[in-house]
Design brief:
Distance between the termini: 63 Å
Strand content: 5-15%
Order of helices and strands: EEHH
Helix content: 55-70%
Largest sheet: 2 strands, antiparallel
Low-confidence stretches: none
Number of strands: 2
Structural class: mainly alpha
Number of helices: 2
Length: about 120
């Protein structure tokens, strides 16, 4: 059975002509190619997301260790004014560095929606 040529839209559009079976096979193959391309793109996005999650988890663990270390250092300086003063200066430097890193890596907030009257 012959049917008139038809065109499949999308990346690499193609007009098919020939028997119904040939046209169907060509169309299915094209669909398969598109699915493969989409799968590769999605796989790369998932890999990037996994990497970012691991990085964030490492950062959280580091922050927890830092906070726990600060508590221990504060307890260790009890009664030693010079050590307490030095610890305060160290904490201020760490605070400034952390604030700068957060500011540098935080995307800007989207603009607030305009109220409609």
């Amino acid at each position: 059975m012959k049917i008139p040529p038809f065109k499949v839209s999308g990346p690499g559009s193609k007009t098919f002509a020939g028997s119904v079976n040939d046209q169907l096979a060509d169309w299915l193959f094209k669909c398969f190619q598109i699915l493969q391309q989409e799968n590769k793109a999605m796989s790369a996005e998932i890999d990037a997301l996994k990497t970012q999650v691991a990085s964030n988890n490492d950062l959280v663990k580091s922050a927890i260790a830092l906070i726990q270390g600060i508590a221990a250092q504060i307890l260790a300086t009890a009664g030693d004014k010079a050590a307490a003063t030095q610890l305060a200066a160290d904490l201020k430097a760490s605070d400034d560095a952390l604030a700068a890193a957060i500011a540098a890596n935080t995307p800007p907030s989207p603009p607030a929606p305009t109220p409609t009257p």
